[in-house]
Design goal:
Length: 173
């Protein structure tokens, strides 16, 4: 006897809801950002300070003839400062600036890995206190063994609507 029912060709296919993240350490905290926002990772180099820049802006570095602002994300996120060691790097990301995408360096104490993290492995951020904490910059929390990885939304952190609007930093360079 034959089965006349139509075959669902998509029945066994699962929708891929994972994203790729670059994970890095800031002090004792491990953060993750979507790889699609990462342009390159640089060895530490001389950072030239900019007069009158916001506190988070450490200065600029030269990357193949272009000056790129460098941000101390620890200062902005309230992570205790730890002197960068030999593993310190500058992670160059791209952030929206109007219709363009501009490079911006983030100081990282150590770059860890590039990890594939599925959407179901991302826990929502816990609610804390009476709503005074702005968690819009956090996408969620993922686990890697016993470590927690805090996934951040760069568009919320550095965009014009975000709490760390750095459009003025681009005017210095």
């Amino acid at each position: 006897m034959t089965d006349d029912s139509p075959t669902d060709l998509h029945q066994d296919e699962e929708e891929d809801t994972s994203s790729t993240y670059l994970t890095f350490d800031l002090g004792t905290q491990t953060l993750g950002v979507e790889v699609s926002n990462v342009r390159e990772i640089l060895d530490m180099q001389k950072i030239t300070p900019l007069p009158n820049a916001p506190l988070e802006v450490q200065g600029v570095v030269d990357v193949r003839g272009s000056s790129i602002p460098v941000i101390d994300l620890k200062a902005r996120l309230g992570i205790p400062a730890i002197e960068g060691g030999e593993d310190a790097r500058i992670v160059v990301i791209e952030v929206a600036e109007g219709d363009a995408r501009k490079p911006l360096g983030i100081l990282a104490d150590r770059v860890r890995d590039v990890d594939q993290i599925s959407a179901e492995d991302i826990e929502p951020c816990p609610s804390v206190g009476d709503g005074q904490w702005d968690s819009r910059v956090l996408q969620g929390i993922s686990r890697s063994g016993s470590d927690l990885i805090v996934l951040i939304r760069l568009d919320q952190l550095f965009g014009h609507a975000g709490p760390m609007d750095l459009s003025g930093a681009f005017q210095h360079v």
